[in-house]
Write a structure and sequence with these properties.
heterodimer; A: 292 residues; mainly alpha; 2 domains; B: alpha/beta; Rossmann fold; six-stranded mixed β-sheet; 9 helices; globular
Chain lengths: 292, 429
Amino acid sequence: MNIKGNKIDIADKLPIGSNQKGAVVIKPSKGWVPLRLKDFWEYRELIYFLTWRDIKVRYKQTILGVSWAILQPLFAMVVFSLFFGRLAGVPSDNIPYPVFSYSGMVIWLFFANGVTLSSNSMVEAANTIKKVYFPRMVIPISSIFSGVVDFFLAFIVLIIMMAIYNIWPRLNILWLPLFLLLAMVTALGVGFWFSAMNVMFRDIRYAIPFLIQAWLFATPIAYPSSLLKGAWKTMYGINPMAGVVDGFRWALLGLDTKPGPMIAVSASVSVTLLITGAYFFKRMEKVFADVI
Amino acid sequence: MAENHIVIEAEGISKRYKIGEQQAQYRTIRESISRAAKAPLVRTAALLRGEAYGAANLRKEIWALKDVSFQVKKGEVLGIIGRNGAGKTTLLKVLSRITEPTEGIARIRGKVGSLLEVGTGMHPELTGRENVYINGAILGMRRSEINDKFDRIIDFAGIEEFVETPMKHYSSGMQVRLAFAIAAFLEPEVLLVDEVLAVGDAAFQRKCMGKMGEVAESGKTVLFVSHNMQAIKSLCPKTMLLEEGRIAAIGESQQVINHYLSGFQEVAQKTWEQQEAPGDEMVRLMGVRVVNESLEPVSYFLSDEQIRVEMEIDIARTHSALCVGFDLITKNGEIVLRTYHNDNEPAKWPELSEGRNVLRCLLPKAFLNKGTYAICPKIKLHQIKQILDSDPVLWFDVELGHGVSPFWSASRETYRPGVVMPILDWEKA
């Protein structure tokens, strides 16, 4: 027993997965585990290939193929324009309502599809998880990356719509990548939480559509956030997507409504979601192969 | 400095799985594990039905591995054998970091490649070329590495004309060949392999064995799990025997194999309960026995007696490609023969129907030499999948009893070499 104790002590001095002399140490982990961000660089090609596979496979055996990426937000825009824009007369910050709702929808769908895909990604990759080792976070990450292509296709249509309605972006557009990044960070954060939980409780899979739907209406897509004023608007930022959608519109459509403290609130919520989600995922990682 | 030559070092590796109470009756760990994997689902479903007993049921534990310690030196090829559920696959899973040990520590020096399955991550909608890249990346190859090896992989799989065809149009044999070919070109410093050789047709299996031999000789460190004693013997100088999660023996392969096989002796029939019968949802093997001319199960024959092997199977769904058979092996693990119920011309096949079937195979009289032999049942869907590829399930002894020649009779007590000992016709030309 003494000998055994000594061995463990020696090994403890080597960090897990240390590359010194290429020695990998395998031992039970306890509690919260370091994220080991270096792994993602190590496995960047796998992220690339999995993303690429998701993109290639997604619209196989569909009649309309990639055009679904455009049809989804377009349909939503038509419905919103009819019911909210025309019938209910919802204001749209002096932007033609179709452009207003479509722009919100484009960034929203990137988030919503990312969350849905990544939440189910772990369960769908069950067989791979049981048979091959790689950092499991690669799976939800690549399913969110795979939505980028859909986003760009829908985004091109948005540019065309803006041209038709004669709306031109101002210098604000330089901020656009920041809001795209924020949308991705939010999707990743939520995706980490849900994909890990989905492995334990398959209820998540059924709960997600409801959650997404409720979240859609809690986000200023069909209506402007300018309906809220002052402190209320800042509080609204607790929904990270409120800040993302508002910021996206501001950067692209050149609204006068400068993003205020609301964006700051949203951004901090997003980043918190990402960090906590990543740690939660990492903590659960060790049991994935056993329970999936 | 000597320690640097040790590539794998395992100290007290243990792995515990939690299983439910109702699984206590399951004998094999593999089944318990698959039950355990489903347990959270069962539990949640039970909770939703308003039955809160699910959680309490997970108290029972099972140690798939217990206190496993060993060292593997650089360039060593170590075989791992043991019955189903002895912990062989769990050990590979722990070493390849798929699952964490509950206790203990292992250190591995060098890039690890593990092959617990071929074709992981492949997608039927993608072309052969695309799948090579996907699967290669999942197994841990760099893109540049796959580029370099691409032509050789395709050549090894023999699918040159179909590289740009979606894999769903491949025959199952082609799919398996491609999947194996990619795996075969994985060149890590430490290779962990689990029975992936049991794929494809005989010719391809030979090719795979050849490739494995090359890997073993190229100075790589290999851990090789198999049920195929022949393969273990020819590839691995050293073998580890696992029994119920513990190392029962480790050492020179032939000795360990003998030790393992001797544990099976003197059982004339083997039957399984419904829940634990090996097989899948389509076909289950319910029992195997060797019987004499009066159809009584016996484990001792004279070589001039007719030995009959009976296999009792339950078929839930018949399938035209279903083949039921067995390997007859010697106590050293050499395969004497492999036979399937439909080896003969179609008119002579016993007809399989849904429900219970008892198939009987008649071994020729005066055929086997003196020795101990075992039956390893095999059930497969031809070229589709192996349903059952079993270890020896029962053993029988053959004592020399055939000899019509006075010379032969006189030599009864002395051993004549050869696995089989048929009496052949001689004539003057």
